[in-house]
Amino acid sequence: MNAAEREHADATMGRDTRTVAGLTLGSRVLGLARDLVTVRVFGDTAVGSAFAAAFAIPNMFRRLFGEGALSAAFIPEYTRLADDDPDRADKLASLVIGMLALITGAITALLMLGILAVLLLAPGSDERVLSLRLVMICLPFMPLICVAAILGGMLQARGRFGPWAAAPIILNVCIIAVSAPYFVLGGDPAAWAYPIAAAATVSGVLQVLWSLWALRGMVRWTRAVSDVHGQARAMLRRMVPVLIGLGTLQLNAFMDTLIAMWPNWVGPTVAGYDYPLDERANAVLFYAQRLYQFPLGVFGIAVATAAFPMLARHAGDPARFVATLRRGLRLSLFIALPATVGLLVVREPLVGTLYSGIGDGFSDEGVRRAGLVLLGYAAAVWAYSLNQLYTRAFYAAGDTATPMRIAVSMVGFNLTLNCVLIWFLAEAGLAWSTAISATLQTWLLARAARRRLVGESLLDAETGRSVLGHIAAALAVGAATGGLLLAWAPPESWAWGAVRLAAAVGLGMAVYAGQARVRRLAELRWLLGRSVGNTMAH
């Protein structure tokens, strides 16, 4: 790859990352606002745990399909067809959407019938009934988000990253709109859980309509799809290993939910022993997860999403493929390392400021417990980001088996750790299990990428220097942020606590941005849209 091609590739990836990250940031800010609203409706209670468990299902499918497996299986094939044979690309998209709607709709119907049978024959406790009813309300989101994800993949393949990155905003607006009247009308939080859960499903319909509108004029829908049946079936078969490989983090988080909900769904004991988690555990776990997922969703997945079509196009050109992957690695760590260190340092002030202090929300014990959970999850934000990038690199090269094998082993490893660590660390053990598994998965994927994809270390001299610099800069951020928090004792009022947190976060961001400017980092120029040949002085 010559200098001009590298400059263009750098600018393209930076532009697309900015687009996805900017719109995802807006979505995540609204998602945070949604959490601030719902946590004050439900708090760290059994009702909060029930709502969190029900919402985990559409949230998991949104991440698996909207940000993960379905797009990863569909985009490479559709991208190649869109470039070489647009008519065939339209046929493939038409067929895949129809097949997916039919299959996921049937699965949804069967699951709802199963839950209905349980409610009729063995309803159990009030907490169990509430949770299962909420799951039934949220389940129709699954086929809707699958269809929307295919539409979003089509947009990304055509270089339009904005509309699909903005689609989750619809989910957040719907939930906020339905939740807000609670603060005026009041009432039983359990009763409010039903319309709030229904808002998630309604948002799925709106996301499909939004994506169709964004695609207008780009695609010709057709029923004449017989000649692409083979391609569609092959793509869906590839999706299964992709689902496992790219969805490890989501599957691990979902297992965390199942383990945390044992007291609500089954009871307070297991095999005659007191269970180490209580009915509030899933609410604590869910809202702590939301905080580490913020930087991951905004930046970690944004880099992987922007890099994926480029990796797919360069799969036949080893030099360009390696160069693109190295740029993605540098961008991922440039963003993820300070996010990791920052969350570790500000974890408890962050939980306390966001989830308590105004209205109801978390109790003091809930804040302490959520802070310990966030400590575990935050330790591996950098690993979650790299796993997204590495896994997409394998898929772009047509290798779905390698990341699937690694992911299966990690899911089993994570489950084993979960079952051990909860007895010592309660719900925080679930977070540490996820972080340890993700870190090991990163190492395994990096080793496999060197052997199977690039034939050389991705950490060449330039990339290695860049990564070491990012680590040093992130540690400086931690020292500055932690020093301010130590020097400024926690105030009594919520408002001054929020000011203290904002000052600490602002100082950390200023320290990191200042270092990046002084060092004239290429990663910063890519994100800001500067030409590689320009200097930061401009």
Rounded to the nearest angstrom, the radius of gyration is 23 Å
H-E string: HHHHHHHHHHHHHEEHHHHHHHHH
Biggest pleated-sheet summary: 2 strands, antiparallel
Give the fraction of residues assigned to helices. over 70%
User: What gross morphology would you assign?
Assistant: globular
Report the count of strand segments.
2
Strand order in the sheet with the most strands: 1-2
Unreliable runs, pLDDT <50, ≥5 residues? Answer: 530-538
How many helices? The count is: 22
On the 0-100 scale, what is the average pLDDT? 85
Sheet/helix structural class: mainly alpha
- DSSP strand content: under 5%
Distance between the termini: 27 Å
Describe the structure.
By secondary structure, this protein is an all-alpha fold. It has a domain at 46-246. Helices cover 81% and strands 1% of the residues. It has 22 helices and two strands. A two-stranded antiparallel ribbon has the order 1-2. Strand 1 (269-270) and strand 2 form a beta hairpin.
At a glance:
This protein has 538 residues and is mostly helical. The protein has helices at residues 3-42, 46-66, 69-84, 86-121, 126-138, 141-157, 162-166, 168-179, 182-185, 189-214, 229-246, 248-260, 262-265, 281-313, 318-355, 364-378, 381-396, 401-425, 428-454, 461-487, 494-518, 522-528, and strands spanning 269-270, 273-274.
Secondary-structure map with pairings?
Elements: H1 3-42, H2 46-66, H3 69-84, H4 86-121, H5 126-138, H6 141-157, H7 162-166, H8 168-179, H9 182-185, H10 189-214, H11 229-246, H12 248-260, H13 262-265, E1 269-270, E2 273-274, H14 281-313, H15 318-355, H16 364-378, H17 381-396, H18 401-425, H19 428-454, H20 461-487, H21 494-518, H22 522-528
